[in-house]
Amino acid sequence: MPETPIQPADTAWLLTATALVLFMTLPGLAIFYGGLVRAKNVLSVLMQCLAITALVTVLWVAFGYSLVFDQLGLRVAAESPATWIGGISKLFLRGVRSDSVVGTVPETVFVTYQMTFAIITPALIIGAFAERMKFSAMLWFTGLWATLVYLPVCHMVWGGSTGWMARMGVFDFAGGIVVHITAGFSALVAAVLVGGRHGYPHQPMPPHSLTLTVIGTGMLWVGWFGFNAGSAVAANGQAGMAMLVTQISPSVAALTWMAIEWTRFGKPSVLGFATGAIAGLAAITPAAGTVGPAGAMAIGCASGALCFVGATWLKRWGGYDDSLDAFGVHGLGGLLGTLLVGVFASSRFGGQVEGLDVGRQLGVQALCAGVTIAWSVAVSWLLLKGLDATLGLRAEETHERHGLDISLHNESGYNY
What we know:
- By secondary structure, the chain is mainly α.
- It contains 15 helices and four strands.
- The chain has a single domain, classed as Ammonium transporter AmtB like domains (Ammonium transporter fold, Orthogonal Bundle).
- 68% of the residues lie in helices and 2% in strands.
- The longest helix is centred in the C-terminal third of the chain and has 33 residues.
- It is globular, with a radius of gyration of 20 Å.
């Protein structure tokens, strides 16, 4: 019998949150990204999201869950209790039964909930190389990246008290480091190494359906309540506050983006508003369990402004083709939220943590973010270089010009 009884309310909430987070990828992210690409590449993006969901599910069951949450981790050093990866006693979910418990919920539900995070994280990277990467290269990159980047970082932050970053006291409630920094900075590497789309930046490449993008934005926004409030792994006050700030931040960020765009260009765009909302959601993710409404407003305002710069001026200055702004929104938004939670988690600024040493916490947040960026960039660069030398990363030029839907999948979602 489990030592801690299963709580029906907590279980019901986490079941709901699990469905919401999976809903973020299928169909939320798929539709959001699908609307942003050109019509000839829509099915390729949808296929990538579907395939990533299936592939990561299998990897998570085989070894992912064990390497993150098995407390029999490998030690960084003999004298240190901190770990960078978990153990192997739960391979293929060995020992996970209907009566096994994590906290107050069935372990089966916890396994599935965490699986949905592992699914959406590499799916975010699609936005950096959309319309030009080979499907086979994408599959290999996803599998290797999830294993070598996502699993170690996830363990260090969420794998229990032995995790290296957890032991340092890092604040990352729902994935600013684990999800957005890993995916966002890896996306920047992918955009640079894969190269720009043919004709970029001189040839206009407008989204084929902003209607789909707005629908996808709404799905992501609603699903994010499961992403953030579900991370409490309980139906409690922390989940309630996480839900509240998850609504505040994207609202402020979207309005900030709109105001900047309206001032600069004379008209507000629906694409800008949608992108600003996603930026605010990414930025509040690491802070959702520890900041209050005032902190959420500050984080939303800052992320709307920073991510606008990242998706416009910075991208032009850098000369890279981050097609759907995976780095500009998720990388920069996640980094900003990871740093600002070190300030706004303090009760002095309306947060939930009493007596927080803001200076020390900022140092912890910056160190953990920096290590994650360095690891994500280095591993992604090596993986992409290796795949380019073996499989090749890019689709053939003729395939890109005809569109990946027909060229790689022999199908088309539209009649031309």
